[in-house]
Write a structure and sequence with these properties.
CATH topology of the largest domain: BirA Bifunctional Protein, domain 2
Number of strands: 27
Distance between the termini: 29 Å
Oligomer: single chain
CATH superfamily of the largest domain: Bira Bifunctional Protein, Domain 2
Radius of gyration: 28 Å
Helix content: 25-40%
CATH architecture of the largest domain: 2-Layer Sandwich
Structural class: alpha+beta
């Protein structure tokens, strides 16, 4: 999918979608007077607006609202903004507790803009098309629940979402992409290919079948191979005392997403993060600057409570494995270490065919720990690393973790969708909280810097992404079953078993079709299973001690020597 369908980096499209959100709000007020407006931002492909209606909207209301939007758009209302004072804005939006809250939080003297179209007006910073008749190609797509300020303890609201585009072709292309994504939904492919499944007895906790676990383990093995020269690997406990998470700050900042248990009357937490366990191992013995940078990895299983309504296959689960790593270093080593992580990430994403990788830099959020000085130092190190590699990046103000700024890595899949996977976070604060020390060259005790790093992010989610990215047809080295032997008649079974054993001796993941189906049925089943190779054996192949290689696209290679094909399979299986 072309980039121009996305809001990011396209100011004209962002303005159009922002205006479509206002048009949606205007239509809702005309059809449902008394509805309270909250906010309506732009999304990747469209917009949404959150409302507090007098009576809840129903799904059938969407078509009415969409028709009213077209009616209003055709009236060609000019869209104009004006600056007002804080006091004037409070008068304009009197009675709307949401708008009043937003206005009251603005600093005194800050410019407040109100945009209008016809008899509709809204609190807004701007970025619009000049008139409503420019909003032509849009569709309302979803009605869902939400909360004010995204706080589940806040006011429950209703969200109406939609998409908007500059041309009809762009909108048609988008819905083609949506249909394509549905066709290759990883949940459907996971069942079809016998990879993984889900069960209501463990909502949010995926079951990996044998073939799915092969893929999972290949991800682990590949990452281990890539970092074997630089990292040592550890494993830390799944359950640790609640006091540990209070020291780390996770309890105060993250407890609503944590699971708890009691052991012999003592409160314990099931870990939502791997970092505190790694810190305890760091502190097991005195450390010297000579050990730095100390790079430590862990494929750590973590648990985080997610509301049932947001669970989505492998994309949103309650338990997942992170390819976590932590680098302990001195301040003057940060930039070099971040560069090494960026290089490693790019190499790994390229291996899976993700050629387009974008980066964003997230800065200090409102609930941050630590001083502005430390935050600035950490943020600058990340900036320097990105610029040293000539990487363009998007600045996301206030989106950092509570303990440090971060770089997020976004990969674009074969269907043009972006996924945030990797992250690099510089952390001055956990080392301080845990009183971590090292002996410097002058024999003084100093506090190390900690860099958090993940590349897959979540192995489970990455497998979901890969399943859809490859549309279930995994590359040879990664496929759970790399080849299947198909025989024309049962007379070739013994020869086929000889071939099977030879491939297995070289650790090629191969199987023999024992179904007894005709060759056309065997081929059809292998294609449904999306296998990279079909090895066809008939009377001629048996007599010549060869094999015919059939590819998924139907192309065939005849008269191949078995040993030569095994050697090719071995080469293709290498990382």
């Amino acid at each position: 999918m072309e980039k121009n369908l996305k809001s990011e980096g396209n100011e004209k499209l962002q303005n159009l979608r922002h205006s479509a959100a206002h048009l949606l709000a205007q239509a809702v007020l005309e059809l449902f007077p008394g509805t309270k407006l909250t906010i309506g931002p732009v999304t990747e492909y469209g917009f949404f607006y959150d409302f507090l209606p007098k009576q809840n909207f129903k799904e059938e209301d969407l078509s009415k609202i969409e028709s009213k939007m077209h009616e209003l758009a055709n009236q060609n209302f000019p869209i104009a903004g004006k600056e007002v004072s804080k006091q004037e804005a409070l008068k304009i939006f009197k009675g709307n507790l949401f708008k009043e809250e937003l206005i009251k939080k603005l600093p005194e003297g800050e410019k407040i803009t109100v945009y209008s179209q016809g008899n509709f007006f809204d609190l807004c910073k701007g970025g619009h098309v000049s008139s409503t008749d420019q909003i032509k190609f849009f569709k309302l797509t979803n009605l869902s629940g939400s909360y004010w300020r995204a706080d589940k303890d806040g006011m429950p609201l209703q969200r109406i979402s939609g998409v908007a585009f500059e041309t009809k072709k762009d909108m048609d292309d988008y819905f083609k992409m949506v249909e394509e994504a549905k066709k290759y939904d990883h949940r459907r492919l996971g069942k079809q290919l016998d990879l993984f499944s889900f069960n209501d007895v463990a909502a949010g906790f995926p079951f990996f079948h044998n073939k799915g676990l092969i893929i999972f383990n290949k991800l682990v093995d590949y990452m281990r191979e890539q970092q074997k020269e630089d990292y040592q690997e550890i494993k830390t406990p799944l359950i640790m005392k609640e006091s540990l998470w209070k020291t780390s700050g996770h309890y105060d900042h993250y407890k609503e997403n944590m699971y708890f248990t009691v052991v012999e009357g003592q409160p314990y937490c099931i870990k939502p993060m791997n970092c505190p366990g790694g810190i305890l191992l760091y502190k097991e013995k005195p450390r010297s600057y000579r050990e730095f940078p100390l790079r430590v990895s862990e494929f750590g299983l973590v648990h985080r409570h997610e509301l049932s309504g947001v669970l989505h296959g492998l994309f949103r689960v309650r338990a997942f494995t992170q390819d976590d790593a932590h680098v302990y270093c001195m301040p003057d080593q940060i930039e070099k270490e971040v560069i090494k992580i960026l290089d490693l990430s790019q190499n790994i994403y390229n291996k899976f065919g993700f050629k387009k990788v974008s980066m964003s830099l997230s800065t200090k959020p409102e609930n941050a720990m630590g001083s502005d000085e430390l935050w600035e130092k950490a943020t600058q190190a990340l900036k320097n690393a990105l610029e040293a590699r000539g990487i363009d990046y998007k600045l996301q103000k206030g989106e950092g973790a509570f303990y440090g700024p971060k770089i997020d890595m976004n990969i674009e899949d074969a269907m043009g969708r972006e996924w945030q996977c990797g992250t690099v976070q510089v952390d001055f604060f956990l080392p301080q909280n845990f009183e971590m020390k090292y002996i410097d060259s002058d024999q003084s005790k100093k506090t190390p810097v900690m860099i958090h790093r993940a590349i897959y992010g979540s192995l489970e989610r990455f497998i979901g992404i890969l399943t859809e990215h490859y549309k279930g047809r995994f590359p040879f080295w990664f496929a759970p079953v790399q080849a299947r032997i198909l025989t024309i008649t049962d007379e070739q079974k013994e020869y086929a078993k000889e071939i099977l054993n030879k491939f297995k001796e070289k650790n090629i993941r191969i199987e023999l079709d024992e179904s007894g189906d005709q060759i056309s049925g065997q081929i059809r089943k292998a294609q449904e299973d999306k296998l990279p190779w079909m090895l066809i054996v008939g009377k001629k192949e048996q007599e010549n001690q060869t094999v015919t290689l059939r590819h998924p696209d139907g192309k065939q290679e005849f008269g191949l020597k078995v040993d030569d094909l095994i050697q090719k399979a071995v080469e293709l299986s290498k990382y």
